[in-house]
Fold:
Amino acid sequence: MSKIPNPSQKNQTNTAIFERRESKVRSYARAMPRKFIKAQGVWMHDSNNGHYLDFLAGCASLNYGHNHPVMKQALLDYIEKDGIAQGLDLYTEAKADFLNAFESIILKPRNLDYRVMFTGPTGTNAVEAAIKLARKVTKRELIVSFTNGYHGMTLGALACTGNATKRNGAGVPLNNVVHEPFDGYFGADVDTADMLEQRLSDHSSGLDKPAAILLETVQGEGGLNAASTEWLRKIAETAKRHGALLIVDDIQAGCGRTNGFFSFEGMGFTPDIVTMSKSLSGMGLPFALTLFKPSLDIWSPGEHNGTFRGNNHAFVTATATLKHFWADDQFQTEVYKRGEYLSARLEKIADKYGFSTRGKGMMRGIDVGSGDIASEVTADAFDKGLIIETSGAFDEVIKVLAPLTITESEMAKGLDILEQCIRNICSEDVDAAA
Ligand code: PMP
Structure:
């Protein structure tokens, strides 16, 4: 392993201003109390010359790493020529360029025809618009979402989120959503897609016909549960059969994270509505989209509004991202290979300690069976210069969300640290139990 300065040895970050002034709601910062000053590629640097490999990547909003030179240059050029920064939903050159690139590089080659709705800039805004549209189109109220699903923190999206701690923050009843069991929720022998079909087919089951079925193909926050293609296809058929719209929330699993630009590519179904955000801008700038089949475009002008639907800086970097990474198959092929390498390494570590692996593509992790162990491991990793987080109902899954642009040697370096931390902590546990 190459030498990574150990941040804990020298880091006496003064965090007083944050503790004094910033709300207690802050979360990531508590596990990583350093003052970060710059970042490039997969590396982040703090104010005390600590260097960290970033296996969190802004929670998958930095799939192309920090400050990628292509996107950075495109943005600098645009600002230099006084390009529009904020344009509400006005027609701008930057928006036209983005739509043209999205149409020709992403939609047409995949034979997809979606209207593009620019929502407010975060993922939850895109989900909110999606469920609102589904209710408007179908004139139904109920949304079917799934156990361990995560869709955002505004009321509509929060109602669709499984985690009780998050939902309890709402302060009001969260209605008109049922949380059905996700693929594998009752183990491999119970087909929960058949269960949903059965419940919707039986008019005495108590389950009303929903406006939409909303799902992540790989549950990002809920423990990296990857639905099988067969299960997803069945759910898509069920949605169609019962007049519900299928919404795929691709906010975390999309933008190349699980191989294709969309997570559902090649699976044999086409969602009616897709939500996207996180790595869409390619540079961490806030940007979200709700995509839907043209027949669903029944909004009246301004009916779903928002000031920040015209982040033209994000359009510029998103366009650069599409042209640079998605114009041919090369990037996808490389990401696939990196995902296979990641999978093999995690399998090996998991096998050694009797743990299991989760996930798909470059969205994978190890279920260590306990949130306490997982947080000890991630804290130790941070001390050794690796930023990595947990996921799952009990935070029991250590989740690798490295930038997709990571090299194999950088990946190996981070996984070596992770392996060492698991060895430190889990060998102690084994010894203590003996
Ligand atoms: N959907 C999914 C699948 C997500 O992972 C997230 C964020 N983790 C959201 C929605 C909400 O996005 P945001 O935090 O940008 O509102």
Notes: The first helix runs from residue 7 to 10. The longest strand covers residues 36-40.
